[in-house]
Structures are given as C-alpha cells and as structure tokens.
C-alpha cells in the first residue's frame, strides 16, 4: 500500500513537471519573434503530446465535473437546490404508450425466476435450528394497531409466522394510542410464542399539536373530501401519519432497536423466506426495504415537494442531500403527468409503506429529522393530508444513497388490491408478474421507474 502511494506520488510529480514545461514553452513561443510556421509546428506537436496524456486526473483540469440540473438532474449549492427530470432512459411516447412500455418492463422483470438475493452468501444467515439461543439482529416487528383490529392483525401474524418469523422468532412490538386490553394481548400471544411488547404511545407524541387551528383544518379537509381524498376528515389518520414519520423513532421502547419490520392488519405473505432478512439488511448496510411502488393521490401532497425545496434552500441544508439519491425516480412525470403537475414536480411515486423494513438510525439522523421538523412546522400534516408513504419516500430519495434502498422482489406480499408476486420455488398462492388483478389500477404502478433509474443491476441481484 505504502509503495503504491509512493510511486503514485512520482507519477503526479512527473505529470506536474510535464505541465510546467509545456506551459513554459507556450509562454516562450508567444514572447519570441519566431517564424509563424515554426511556431505552428511546435504548437501542433505539443498538442499531440498533450493528447497522448490524460491529464484529467489532475484536480481542476476536468471542468465538466461540477454538473448542473440540465445534465445531471440536480444542482446542489447553498440557496440554489434544484432537481430536474432529465429522462435518463430517453423514454418516448404519450402517457398511454409509456404505461405500456413500463408495464412490459415490470412484467418482464417479475417473470424472471429468482430465489433470494445473490449479492450475499445467504448460507451465512439461514434459519437457526434453535431460535431460543439464536443471536438475533438488532430488530423488531412493529404493528401500530387498535384493540378492535385483533382479528385483522392476527390474520397477518399467522401468515407472517409461517413465512418468516416462526423460524427466527424476532420480538413483536405492538403500538397503540390507547392501552391494549388483556384480551388483545392474550390473542396475540396465541398466534406466536416470540417475545411481545405492548406499548401505549404517550399523548404528546400522538395528539394533534396545540398550534394547529382545528377550524381551519376542518374547512380544508372538507375540500379534500369533496375531491375524494381518502381519510381526509379522519383526525386519527393525520395523527398516525405524523407519528409514523417523526415520533415513532423516538418512542422510548424502540430506542433499544435499530431495524424494524412494519406489518399491518389483513396483509398476506406468500413466500417461505429462508434467510434472516434483518441480517441481510445489516450485512449489506441497507437502510430501507420495500416491495411495492405506487403513485399517490396527487391532491394529498400538493405542497410537500415545494416545502421540501424550501427547506433544502434554507441556510446550508443543501448539505443533507445525498448526491446518489433517487432523484429521477421522484420526478418522472411521463406515465402520470397530471400527478406531477398537481404535486408541483413530485411524481407522487412512493414506497408503499404498509410493508417496510427500515434502519431507524436513518430516520433518527439529523438530515431526516431536521427536514421532518420543517414539514411539521408548516402544519400541513393537518392542513393537507400528507401520507406517511410519500414523506418517507421523499426523505429516502433525497438523504439516502439509492443503492442502500432495497426492493425485496423475492418476498411475495399483498395488501389488497396490490401485490408483489415473484416467480420463485418458495412462493405460492399469488399470481406472478402483475401488480394486481385489476386492469384499471395498473397505471398506479411506478416500479418500472425504480428499476430504470435506481437499480444498477436489475438482474444480477436476484
Ligand atoms: C441496537 O440499536 C440501537 C440503535 O442504534 C442501539 O442504541 C442499541 O445499543 C443496539 N443494541 C445492541 C444490542 O447493539
């Protein structure tokens, strides 16, 4: 290592000498009364000499490295943060044609036969023979549910145990804004013998902040409801989204964990998962795992993107943006131009958050938290209906490296009416290759954009 460094220093020194000599000759040429033709010949030979050497590794010479929104899709400077969709795959056609191309792409990928991810030796993280003595990853399964949802979440847990957790026995953390009843607890314990914790969210982490004008919210949500934005008038939904985005990670009982896997009532798992998904996340330093990409209701997030840009353009907040973020995925407006228009530039494409496997340390980080605080200060978790999925997704696309966000293509999963159904020997009970059975919903799929812009190696990983 040392000697390599040493010889590199010599290469640099020699290159620097070359540059100095060439510059000196050029200055000399300009200052001397030489014959025009001689001068030209010398110039030409210098030119051919410099062409033979690649000097671009010398700092400052490569002028194109800075980039601009025009060619790289982003500008990141204090007070001048901009993103632009630059159509990296040069897709062409009207929205209907784009939808056809994208659906074809998605179906093609889904139909390829796969097993678990190939970028890690899964034999190192197989199910233990005795989960009781197993050294678990630092992780928990999380369900935010009410007592009244016992049957629905029970259904999920039975499937989840069969698919994954029966083999690994990761602890469950049940979270509720009201105390769980004994009946609920007993029922959950009958579904799994993994450790379980039941948590009541402190009021101050859940309730609508005092600063929110309830009357203003009622009026604005009536308008939302008139535009068919689901759950707009349900206060607990607004509380839930805000909670999941910020205060969730601060719950005292979750401080002892790093990774979480979120489950919801009445979802389905179709795959026999034979490796420890948490240990895969840990080993590959993944920040976030998802199964489904969808467009959102554009009206629910009209000012989410402008507010985000406002935050990024304040002070030196530009520094939080990860240069390898999933910007193009956030901005592609080809399939659903109306969405991007209503949402002021945000495609509304998001990771469907009823399934998420995440590294809470990312969401506890300064970048994410400062941004969340800004969003919260606008009051628009109540005056608009920002869902937890689009907010999570924008945060991830901006502040994480896109290679650390992982599509669990191998995990068969559904939350009606959408599904992720891989073509694999370990999967049964779902129909491979489509987002769902309803033709008219296929335009809600934006996974092709993730595949096109954010995956370096679509095929190689599975
Ligand atoms: C698990 O992760 C949390 C959050 O990073 C950390 O505080 C805790 O010490 C970790 N526990 C172990 C056993 O490593």
UniProtKB/TrEMBL annotation:
The chain crosses the membrane at residues 12-29. Its main location: membrane. One of its GO terms (molecular function) is alpha-1,2-mannosyltransferase activity. It is found in: Membrane. The active site is at residue 356. Keywords: Glycosyltransferase, Membrane, Signal-anchor, Transferase, Transmembrane, Transmembrane helix. One of its GO terms (biological process) is protein N-linked glycosylation. PANTHER family: ALPHA-1,2 MANNOSYLTRANSFERASE KTR1, MANNOSYLTRANSFERASE KTR4-RELATED. InterPro entries: Glyco_trans_15, Nucleotide-diphossugar_trans. Belongs to the glycosyltransferase 15 family. This is Glycosyltransferase family 15 protein. SUPFAM superfamilies: Nucleotide-diphospho-sugar transferases. It comes from Suhomyces tanzawaensis NRRL Y-17324. GO terms for cellular component: Golgi apparatus; membrane. It is a single-pass type II membrane protein. Gene3D superfamilies: Spore Coat Polysaccharide Biosynthesis Protein SpsA, Chain A.
């Amino acid at each position: 290592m040392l000697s390599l460094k040493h010889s590199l220093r010599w290469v640099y020194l020699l290159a620097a000498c070359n540059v100095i000599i060439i510059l000196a000759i050029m200055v000399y040429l300009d200052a001397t009364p030489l014959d025009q033709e001689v001068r030209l010949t010398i110039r030409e030979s210098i030119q051919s000499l410099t062409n033979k050497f690649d000097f671009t590794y010398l700092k400052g010479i490569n002028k194109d490295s800075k980039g601009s929104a025009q060619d790289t899709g982003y500008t990141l400077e204090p007070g001048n943060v901009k993103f632009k969709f630059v159509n990296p795959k040069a897709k062409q056609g009207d929205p209907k044609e784009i939808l056809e191309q994208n659906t074809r792409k998605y179906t093609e990928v889904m139909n390829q036969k796969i097993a678990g991810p190939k970028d890690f030796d899964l034999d190192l993280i197989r199910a233990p023979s005795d989960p009781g003595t197993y050294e678990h990853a630092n992780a928990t399964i999380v369900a935010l549910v009410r007592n009244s949802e016992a049957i629905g979440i029970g259904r999920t847990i039975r499937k989840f145990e069969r698919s994954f957790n029966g083999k690994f026995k990761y602890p469950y953390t049940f979270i509720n804004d009201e105390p769980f009843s004994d009946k609920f607890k007993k029922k959950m314990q009958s579904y799994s013998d993994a450790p379980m914790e039941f948590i009541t969210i402190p009021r101050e982490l859940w309730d609508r902040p005092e600063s929110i004008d309830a009357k203003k919210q009622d009026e604005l949500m009536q308008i939302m409801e008139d535009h068919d934005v689901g759950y707009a008038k349900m206060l607990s939904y607004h509380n839930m989204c805000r909670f999941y985005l910020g205060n969730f990670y601060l719950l005292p009982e979750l401080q002892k964990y790093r990774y979480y896997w979120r489950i919801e009532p009445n979802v389905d798992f179709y795959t026999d998962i034979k490796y420890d998904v948490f240990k895969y996340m840990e080993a590959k330093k993944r920040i976030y795992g998802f199964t489904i990409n969808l467009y959102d209701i554009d009206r629910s997030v009209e000012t989410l993107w402008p507010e985000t840009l406002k935050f990024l353009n304040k002070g030196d907040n530009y520094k939080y943006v990860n240069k390898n973020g999933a910007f193009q995925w956030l901005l592609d407006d080809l399939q659903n131009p109306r969405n991007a228009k209503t949402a002021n530039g945000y495609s509304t494409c998001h990771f469907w958050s009823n399934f998420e496997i995440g590294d809470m340390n990312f969401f506890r980080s300064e970048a994410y938290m400062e941004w969340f605080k800004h969003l919260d200060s606008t009051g628009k978790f109540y005056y608009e209906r920002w869902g937890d999925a689009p907010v999570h997704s924008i945060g991830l696309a901006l502040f994480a490296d896109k290679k650390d966000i992982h599509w669990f293509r191998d995990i068969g999963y559904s939350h009606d009416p959408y599904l992720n159904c891989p073509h694999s020997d370990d999967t049964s009970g779902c129909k491979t290759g489509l987002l769902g059975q309803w033709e008219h919903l296929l335009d809600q799929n934006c996974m092709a954009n993730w595949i096109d812009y954010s995956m370096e190696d679509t095929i190689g990983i599975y």
